[in-house]
Design brief:
By secondary structure, the protein is α+β, with helices and mostly antiparallel strands. The chain folds into two domains: 5-190, Bira Bifunctional Protein, Domain 2 (BirA Bifunctional Protein, domain 2); 197-238. Helix content is 23%, strand content 33%. The protein has a seven-stranded mixed beta sheet with strand order 1-2-3-7-6-5-4. The chain has a five-stranded antiparallel beta sheet with strand order 11-10-9-8-12, with no helix packed on it.
Length: 239
């Protein structure tokens, strides 16, 4: 793996770090750029859903050249957060497919991840947006939320968490590349959905989760008809 030059830009208040990095997709492919904002006014997640981003949370976007197949970042990105939080707090969080960060019982959302791949000819850059409720009060949304501060009972250094996430991201890339880790099994271990009923947001269908496929899609079954379905770009809610 090539040594990458890492650069940080820390901002007070912007609309969203994901939009801010759009101007940096064409920078040197050997450079890793990380944007961190103390507050976002127009934060968003998958499919443009609003992400409330008050002060006290971590809002960062990492833009870099992919070291592994781009679809593997669906697992690498959330696992880098899981590892970092555990090493800082001894709290083991969970993943709600495809890449939301939840409390261990999958009952409250702590964070989310957004991926954006840009390909130009033979080169590619990936933007990894990460939003985590750290020291802020959990926002009131349509789904239950929680913050790391409330879960561990004390404030957490946002800067330390951000640096650790970047480091764990690099480690997971390397481990995946040299096959030191079974990325799929690691992802499955932290995404305890098998056997649970979920609702497919796009059509409100209630299905049972059978498992996570090798391409990180979700295999589900309609409990009434027995029909199997493969979910890739869908959103699910726990029932």
């Amino acid at each position: 793996m090539k040594l990458r030059l890492s650069k940080f830009i820390k901002l007070k208040r912007i609309d969203t770090t994901m939009k801010y990095v759009e101007n940096y997709f064409s920078v040197d492919e050997d450079e890793v750029l990380t944007i961190i904002a103390e507050e976002q006014t127009s934060g968003f997640g998958r499919k443009g859903r609003r992400w409330i981003s008050p002060k006290g949370g971590l809002y960062m976007t990492i833009i870099k050249s992919p070291e592994v197949e781009p679809h593997l970042y669906q697992a690498i990105a959330p696992l880098s957060v899981i590892r970092s939080v555990y090493k800082l707090t001894n709290l083991l969080l969970s993943i709600k497919w495809p890449n939301d960060i939840y409390t261990p019982g999958l009952d409250r959302k702590v964070g989310g991840i957004l991926l954006n791949l840009q390909e130009r000819g033979k080169s590619a850059r990936i933007a990894i947006g990460i939003g985590i409720n750290v020291n802020n009060e959990p926002p009131h949304t349509e789904y239950p939320t929680e913050s790391l501060k409330n879960l561990v009972g004390k404030p957490i250094s946002i800067d330390e968490l951000a640096c650790n996430i970047l480091w764990e991201l690099f480690l997971l890339e390397r481990e995946t590349k040299v096959r030191e880790i079974d990325l799929l099994q690691e992802y499955r271990r932290h995404a305890p959905l098998q056997g649970r009923l979920v609702s497919i947001v796009e059509n409100n269908e209630i299905v049972k989760v059978i498992g996570i496929n090798e391409d990180f899609s979700l295999l589900v079954m309609n409990p009434n008809t027995g029909e199997l379905k493969k979910l890739k770009e869908h959103t699910i809610r726990l029932v």
